[in-house]
Amino acid sequence: MKNTSFRCLWIGQAFANLGDIFYVVGLISLLYNLTGSAFYLSLLPFITTIFRFISSLLAPLVIDRLPLKRIIEQSQWWKTILLVCLGIFIISFDHGFSVAVIFFIALISLLDGVAAPVSAALVPQLVPKEERMKANGFLNVITQTIFVAGWPLGSVLLISTNSSFIIWLTVLLYAVSTIYTGRIKVPEQTTDPVAPSNWDSIKSGWVAIRQIPTIRTLISIDFITTLASSVWVAAVIYIYVEQNLQLGEEWWGYINTSYFVGMIFSGLIVIRFAKLLEKYIGFFITFGLFLSSLLILFFGTTSIPALALLLACLYGLPEQIREVIYTKLFQDHATEKTLAKIYAVWGAVINLTFAGSVLLLGFITETYSVKTTFQFSSTLIFLAFLYATFKRNDLQGKQSDQSLSSKSSNLPR
Fold first, then answer.
1. At what angle do helices 38-63 and 336-367 cross, to 10 degrees?
2. pTM for this structure?
């Protein structure tokens, strides 16, 4: 964890993540000033999700043909260049400019869909196996801290300046991120002299998931819990605050902050007790799911504001610990290139699942009640707990080097 390349990785990711937040804040303000239309604002998450989904599916085509470091470095440079172009175009405030903004959003989302899985796959090349749990916990602490601090800071900047200033500030943050990414040193990767066919590349991540039981089980669990986790979106929490707590709208912000504070604390717990978590991986996954099911059930039924804040914070603990454990197991059961393809597939599935679950839980909330929505989510997580218990042998995190090597050799690279 103390090597220079890992330090460059997390610093580069920190600047990139902060830039991503400012990018969204600036675009929301820019689109609203240009159009005054709620429809155009709704296009921002829609376009982002759809194009990231498409690029995640196609990412293996790039991963098979370029070294991982080169992919993430070039994608960050292109994001910077596209934002520079957007900043220049901002001087033309005509009505048709809104279409150009949507075009830039689509292109940047395509780059993000490729860069995200590659960035996650770089960690095993920089950190020894015995330190990966701690490294993943550290990266999650950095990410969640920036998320908690970045949105309020972006709002303050927007009030104090304007969308154009924020876009140019994002350009600076992306440029710094790219410089740090370029300083990462990774072992020289050998590429196959004959690249696989396009179809073989696209399906390789899916084939890897099917052939590696641990990863297949983790993704199945994550699919179920993602369906449930949409209860934390602003639309559901806003109604929860109004119906259950009967308080002002500012409380949904307090609850979200409490949730992410819990995630930050869980990252610190992972760093401190990495060896213990790694020793009992299966237990912490299954017990964490059971605990999450109880916490979300109690949260959905309480009408006490202080208890709601506490439960939201506590819910973030097992949620984040599971995510770090998942990442560690992924890294231990696949080679770097295969890992990047698996992350790409996982990202595509999760993005689509999350989008669908938001609509499903919104429908349940409107048709029945917000309490019913939380009860439904609690039931889903409990089903994930039962499935994890049934598949506990796949969650031990232990696999002989010979077995792993044998399976990896049969996977499409």
1. 150
2. 0.83
Cα–Cα distance measured from residue 110 to residue 147, given in angstroms and rounded to the nearest whole number: 22
Encode pLDDT of 300-332 as tens digits. Answer: 999 999 999 999 999 988 988 888 888 888 888
Report pLDDT digits (tens) over 367-389.
888 899 999 999 999 999 999 99
